[in-house]
Amino acid sequence: MKRQLFLAEYIQHPATVGAVMPSSKYLAKKVIDDIDFNQAEYIVEYGPGTGIFTEKILAKRKENTIVLLVELSKEFYQTLKEKYEGEENLYIVNGSAENIDWYLRKFNIPKVDYVVSGLPFTTLPKVTSSEILNKTKSILKDEGTFITFQYTLFRKKLFQSAFEHIEVKRELRNVPPAFVLSCSNPRSS
Fold first, then answer.
1. What keywords are annotated for this sequence in UniProt (predicted)?
2. d(C-alpha 38, C-alpha 61), whole Å
3. What number of other Cβ atoms are within 10 A of residue 95's Cβ?
4. If you compute the radius of gyration of the chain from its CA atoms, what whole number of angstroms results?
5. Which of 44, 84, 34, 46 is nearest to 67 (CA)?
6. Could you give the CA distance from residue 82 to residue 85 in angstroms, rounded to a whole number?
7. Is the pTM of this model over 0.85?
8. 3-class DSSP state for residue 21?
9. Does the pLDDT of residue 5 top 60, yes or no?
10. How far is residue 134's CA from residue 140's CA, in Å, rounded to a whole number?
11. 117 and 97 in contact (C-beta within 8 Å)?
């Protein structure tokens, strides 16, 4: 079911979906490995799709940790709403990550500990990507981290324009293999 939905969404919206299959459990694990779930109060996920990262985040978070999902696809949004109906401290928005500042105000979320992203920055317009990254940088706590995965490092310089420190890991057990980028800025003094 997930694969069929993913393929259908990719065919209809290749620039915003960016993959023909959901991410593997190996990639999901590698993406959330750097999250300190004991300390995280607020976690945002951009482009959760069918929820492969969401499942792992919800399973590991503390009970009072707030999770906000921002999904552009109406089909994926509806799937997530049905899948997580009744889940406490979880908000799901059908919209664009470009409006993250507005969504945080709507749900009274001050600053975010982690932003996990499944957005295909390689296929998004550069202006849109820059807008999302700049807003992401502004909503993160000083010690906050932006974690994304990409199939190439084609747009690494774009991430470097917003974040001073980027750690890159590779996950080969995904179709296609992917890079995981953990992006942060040094703490303010």
1. Methyltransferase, RNA-binding, S-adenosyl-L-methionine, Transferase
2. 7
3. 13
4. 15
5. 44
6. 5
7. yes
8. coil
9. no
10. 10
11. yes
Query: For residues 151 and 29, is the Cβ–Cβ distance under 8 A?
Result: no
CB 160 within 8 A of CB 11: no
- Tell me how far CA of residue 74 lies from CA of 79, 84, 93, 168, 187, in angstroms: 9, 15, 10, 31, 37
Name the burial class of residue 126, with classes exposed (0-12), middle (13-18) and buried (19+) by CB atoms within 10 angstroms of its CB: exposed
Strand partners, 137: none
Structure tokens at 157: 């310089």
Single-letter amino acid, residue 92 = I
Among all chains, which residue has been given the structure tokens 């694969």?
3
Its CATH class, for the domain covering 24-69+83-184, is alpha beta
The two tokens of residue 93 are 């928005």
Cβ–Cβ under 8 Å, residues 77 and 17:
no
Q: How confident is the model over 48-88, as pLDDT tens digits?
A: 998 999 999 999 999 999 999 999 999 999 999 999 999 99
How far from chain centre, in Å, is Cα 104?
Answer: 15
Residue 70: per-residue pLDDT? 98
Q: Which residue has the tokens 């999250």?
A: 35
Would you state the structure tokens that stand for residue 44, as one six-digit string? Answer: 């945002």
